Amino acid sequence: SNETCRSLLALAFDDTVARSSDLTPVTATDPPQDSRAAEAPRFPVAGWDRYASVRFLGQGGMGQVFLAVDPRLHREVAIKFVRGDNPEHVRRLIAEARAQARVSHERVCKVHEVGEVEGKVYIAMQYIDGNPLGSLAGELTVEQKVMLVRGAAEGLHAAHRAGIIHRDIKPGNVMLTQT
Fold first, then answer.
1. Apex CA 114: angle with CA 112 and CA 119, to 5°?
2. DSSP class of 138
3. What is the pLDDT, as a whole number, of residue 27?
4. CA distance 97 to 13
5. In this predicted structure, what is the pLDDT of residue 123?
6. Where in the sequence numbering do the catalytic residues fall?
């Protein structure tokens, strides 16, 4: 992961600044630490006791995803919030969570909970600390690519067996982690 690389480089060059983690929890009132943070959307729920915001991860057509910490279970989670208040997007997000929760496979992200806070619907999911396949494809051998695509296909097969069709399969939506 990027954090592991930074940590190893810091150890190699004895750089204490590079060793500091950028997964420090922040609140909506904290000032942005860099220009990327200034452009990132704010966590939709300030002062929420259920999850503590860490940072913005990304967004798709109908939702924004944030890295957060679950203080009860001491784990990182990815929380997807619906952007805006479109009832159709809310319905689709809940349907997505229910469908995904039916799949139990090591290559499919687990859903921990669906809920609503301050009128905002969310899905709390397993956080995958990795990189999208699309960003690493140029560094991989043909054999590695074949193995990764096979693994992704196994996860998709598990979803298909549960009656789910993923409608946005692309290299950016396949996360790679080192195991």
1. 145
2. G
3. 29
4. 44
5. 94
6. 168
